[in-house]
Amino acid sequence: MTQAVPTKILVIEDDTRTLNMYIDGLETEGFETISASDGTTGIQQALSHLPDLIICDILMPDIDGYTVLEKLRQNPLAAIIPFIFLTGRGTKEDFRRGMESGADDYIAKPVTLEQLLKAIAIRLEKKQAFLSYCCANYDSISKPRPKEEESIFPVVPQLQEVFDFIEANYHKGITLSHVAEAVGYSAAYLTNRVAKITGETVNSWIVKRRMVAARYLLKNTSQNIEEIATTVGYQNTCHFSRQFRQHHDIPPQSWRKKHQFIEPLPVEV
């Protein structure tokens, strides 16, 4: 019988006593652990072992935790690893900076093992749900799109979960709150994070994806405007038409007349 591979967690902490306490507690719970006593070593260990989750202190002697996270987010293989800040700095400003830097969670010390395990479980569950979604939708994700429907989303590993959710659900009438709930962040934080990285809001990306689908349907199908609005996620045809006009300067019906391919009549001989 094949044994399950234990979950691997990297702990980066410069205080030896605290580091050992975390390591002992995690190993008692059945986790495989890797340790690093400074940020530079932590980055090396993360890239070498690619753990399932990283717990990192912020204040360290060589480079701080923010720099560790920044370096790892620049690496495609390490960018999707859940990252938890665990630190004695617990002010609102510290929390905000930690989350805006792209951390998945920020926990202020002192923290009990039970609290830490709960935070770990939540992040690992979200990671597994994301991987399961990718596996279940592999065919639709990997299937080439028509030229008109080439992906509009930028390649940003730390936002991949956000963009994948929008791609899979834009036609279902989703809003910012749906996306935020799916990826485990507050709507306000997710808006700030996406805007900071891409210069666009979550709602803007949803609308842009719907516009791509709408243009394709207008050009290549005979669906009427109401049907297209419903297909791409709008409950109100007027709302769809208004947003389409805002993005294209003309109504959808006028856009269709301008771009739709009209098959020529047969030539009589």
Shape from CA axes?
elongated
Strand ordering within the main sheet: 2-1-3-4-5
- Overall domain count: 2
Would you state the CATH class of the largest domain?
A: Alpha Beta
Q: Which consecutive residue ranges, at least 5 long each, have pLDDT under 50?
A: 138-148, 262-269
Q: CATH topology of the largest domain, which one? A: Rossmann fold
- What is the residue-mean pLDDT, rounded to a whole number? 84
Find the count of extended strands (DSSP E, 2+ residues).
5
List the keywords.
Rossmann fold; 269 residues; single chain; Arc Repressor Mutant, subunit A; alpha/beta; elongated; 55% helix; 2 domains; disordered C terminus
In words, what does this structure look like?
It is a single chain. The protein has 269 residues and is of the alpha/beta class. It has two domains: 8-132, Response regulator (Rossmann fold); 139-259, Arc Repressor Mutant, subunit A (Orthogonal Bundle), CATH 1.10.10. It has 13 helices and five strands. A five-stranded parallel β-sheet has the order 2-1-3-4-5, with helices on both faces. Helix 4 (92-100) links the parallel strand 4 (83-87) and strand 5. The longest helix is centred in the middle third of the chain and has 24 residues, at 113-136.
Q: Layout of helices and strands, plus pairs?
A:
Elements: E1 8-12, H1 16-28, E2 32-36, H2 39-49, E3 53-56, H3 65-73, E4 83-87, H4 92-100, E5 105-108, H5 113-136, H6 138-142, H7 160-169, H8 176-183, H9 187-198, H10 202-220, H11 225-231, H12 237-248, H13 252-259
Parallel strand pairs: 1-2, 1-3, 3-4, 4-5
Helix pairs in contact: 2-3, 7-8
